[in-house]
Amino acid sequence: MADDNRGTVQYSCCGLGWGVPGDIAAESEKFRWMGTKRYAFLKVKRLLFPKRHSGRLQYEEDNIYDGIASVRNAHLKAASKLAGAAIGVLNSAPDGAFCHPSDGCLDLIVARKGNIFQMLNLAVLYLLGKERKSSLLSYVKVKAVVITQNEADGVMNMDGEVLPGPGPWRMEVVPSLFKVLSEK
């Protein structure tokens, strides 16, 4: 992952999150005394007191093994203006049933805010393991992602570490950088 403004490059093995995941990572240090329950507490807090996140999302679909040597100069597809609750870019996660560390892709998950009925429907679908059927959730396998946020105080969660904004942040798959054993 690279921060385009500062030219900093950092490496992630598990996942990246912007929006609600970034907020939770940033606030979690204040509640360290709660142990792992702090994450559930902060999720409920964000549900009751949401913070708006807006920006622009660009991505390059497919995987790194389809003939392109590098995606650094590839043309990225631009999504329309983003006003979502959360963006996750995962390589592996307990609830990422379709995430495979060796498939050459980042799994881009975009969750949007909806009305109360849409949010309740998403919650029920999540409990049933069918959240991908919700119109509020987009799931795309990508080679590279660039997130440009509109707020100056936003943060990125990278494997539990908080990276300060304002970004933009660029994430891409680097083949054969890490050797990770996985059950998937």
Automatic annotation (TrEMBL):
<dbReference type="InterPro" id="IPR050187">
    <property type="entry name" value="Lipid_Phosphate_FormReg"/>
</dbReference>
<dbReference type="GO" id="GO:0016773">
    <property type="term" value="F:phosphotransferase activity, alcohol group as acceptor"/>
</dbReference>
<dbReference type="GO" id="GO:0046512">
    <property type="term" value="P:sphingosine biosynthetic process"/>
</dbReference>
<dbReference type="InterPro" id="IPR045540">
    <property type="entry name" value="YegS/DAGK_C"/>
</dbReference>
<feature type="domain" description="YegS/DAGK C-terminal">
    <location>
        <begin position="93"/>
        <end position="181"/>
    </location>
</feature>
<dbReference type="GO" id="GO:0016020">
    <property type="term" value="C:membrane"/>
</dbReference>
<dbReference type="InterPro" id="IPR016064">
    <property type="entry name" value="NAD/diacylglycerol_kinase_sf"/>
</dbReference>
<dbReference type="GO" id="GO:0005737">
    <property type="term" value="C:cytoplasm"/>
</dbReference>
<dbReference type="Pfam" id="PF19279">
    <property type="entry name" value="YegS_C"/>
</dbReference>
<dbReference type="GO" id="GO:0001727">
    <property type="term" value="F:lipid kinase activity"/>
</dbReference>
<protein>
    <recommendedName>
        <fullName>YegS/DAGK C-terminal domain-containing protein</fullName>
    </recommendedName>
</protein>
